[in-house]
Amino acid sequence: MLSFAGTLAVWAALLGAAWLTVTAWQAARRPSFSIAILRRPLLTMVWAAVGAMVILLAALLANDFTVSYVANHHSRHTPFPFNIATAWAALEGSIVLWGLVLAGYAYFVWRRAITRHEQPDTLDWGALAVIAAVGVFFFGLMATVGNPFEVCVEASARSCTASSAIPFSSAVGPADGAGPNPLLQNHILMAIHPPLLYLGYVGMTVPFAYGVAALALRRPGSEWLRRSGFWTRISWVFLTAGITLGAWWAYEVLGWGGYWAWDPVENASFMPWLVATAFLHSSLVQERRGMLEAWNFVLVIGTFSLTILGTFLTRSGVIASVHSFTQSAIGPALLGFLVVVVVGSFTLFAARSQQISSPPRLESLSSREGSFMLNNLLLSVYAMVVLTGTLYPLVLEAFSGSEVGVGRPFFDRLAVPISFALLLAMGVGPALPWRVARRKVVWPRVHLPLQVALGVGTVVVITTTRIGYVVLAAVAGSWVVAVAAYRLWTQAQRFAGSKGTSAARQLGRVIRSDRGFWGGQFAHAGVALAAVAIATTANLGQTLDRVDLTPGDRVEFAGYQLVHTGVATARTPNRLTSSAAVQVWKDDQLQGWVQPSLSQFETSALPIATPGIHRSFKEDLYLSLTRIDEQGITLRAATAPLQWVLWVGGLLCAAGGLYALMGRDRRRSRPKTAKTGIHPDG
Amino acid sequence: MGDASTVPSRLRRMSPLVTVALGIFIVFSLVNADPIAEDRSERIGDQVRCPACEGESIAESPSSYAADMMTYVRELVDQGLSDQQVLDRLMASYPDSQLLDPPLRAGTLLLWLIPAAVLLTGAGLVLSRRRRRPTALLGDNHGR
User: For residue A584, what are the β-bridge partners?
Assistant: First the structure.
């Protein structure tokens, strides 16, 4: 029954998307077209996409194991909220979520277009047509090779061994399913970070759609950037938050104390972030100075292509081996779509290159736009490094059959210097005025911050460490923050001077006067914090490799005394969890209890380690088990200095983006407000 | 000019000296930086892919297979073998593809060349965007 309803919803969404593609494109080609006719296909697609997700959730909550997806990925004992998260935890379900998010974006793009002050026009309808066309692909995927609503026609004890796409097939279902991958039901962040990443990924469709529409309708210029800027930023915010929470999840769950392994799945989210970040900056250059018009098309096409590539990499099984990826037809379909997107959009770009205006030349490299170009160069190279390192083993194996491994040493060697260069550029850039930077203008803006940064570095050297990366990160990070803070302070002073009040009272007004700029500075500060935390956790942490402890044993580690007091086991319907109680002492003071554990899921052979973390301002003490039984435990311990700063930095980065977005929205909805603020762009 | 006027002028004249002194101190510290307090075994372990797990190195993976391999690495390090010798022993029974740090060979050359090529092309593009000296300016505007 639910299979039938679900299949119906998927087909309705597919028809709605196709219908919308055609009507929106007609509206884009003929300005006199009545836009009211877009409403019906749009709402068909949106409601059908919502329906598909609701039906999938209903099937999960009702334990309807005759639905193949439910039989294969759900179990009666999966606890809340993981039974909900199962809806997008596996391949077919994740595409349902993708479709839902895309339909949501389509709806809000439409809403925004018709409620905006200026009249919506062909550019908006063209963009809507492109979004709907992307929807046709994804709903088509659901309707054919990736249908989660297939009826289970042959079941084994805990899974569905054969399924049929015909809704009225006689359904059988296992009494219970295998449940989701144990790693996916261990931590609340698992239920949160994938949807955030999807909101970011799929959102990048919107600026891409505006870009393609601008090219197809021969309307290059900056209008498409202005209309899609909101969507680029909100997607970027989601992507940033999703990456941060994903790293946090890895840290809390995977049990080795790491948050980033240059794993292809992580790289798949990082590459679009890098290119989208470049795009955010270069689109500013075009809006302000009319430069980089062609480059912005390249970046927006690149961002979207990388999101599709990322979906292909993470969802086709190609990572495990190039030979396994024919197991599901979804992989080849995604690869085909990627080729169509890349070839199609770059062909269109080439065909329109005559109409893309040749930009005015850069007056000086030392200017705001010059620093943006440096930023774009570094981010592009960075993305290329990650892309090459991720794809190289696959491509080499596919073409020559020889295998090569590319891992952390390769990525670190190239990513670390690029990151430091980016940090330094991030410190200089905001202090430079547009067009040409004169030393007389720039030096006063950066001199005091430079002293502060060097001073911070000196303090670090004297009090903490002389490890180069840490000192460098401290100097570069505080330089970024100090340049922004000093800028803020001097402007508040100027503001206060004209008002006759104190500068401290004007800080808020200065920030509010240009939310775009200051939101960007908050994001920069977030990146700087993250950089410092990455340097400290990677270089100042200590590790204790596997000690065997029996209850009552005590071990000294990194200034802590760890006392293992006992073992407890707890059985829940789907797992047996054995946890070790460990007291954490420091200077004869009990700091707290930590309970690392190992869980044995009934559906999985390998036990899943859940670390126990003792958090303090200075550092995290990270304990994980590799063995637990009657004789005692085998414990691994590590310290991660300033680990919390990484999460704060990542979230601050996202929050800064959000703040910048609010400014953009305000300025756009009230375009003619008198400019009372002092604009830092000089 | 910021708040420079509120700073006594003598201090203001000293200010660049402070910057230079701090700068020299930092550069000096960086040149004489402590070596990263690294565990040689960990560093070697970072370079070897755990055969039983997906994509993790043996230093990172919590699996017992990786733990055994790390124990072996530690033994070899304690015997005083060099990094390369340890890797050679370890890799005797594994294909090269288990190395996460690809050795520079004909097959991996492109891996290093592609990022370098992008960097050079990009830098070239940025530089070519720069407006020429005023003498070249006329020719520049000519085409538009």
Answer: A562, A592
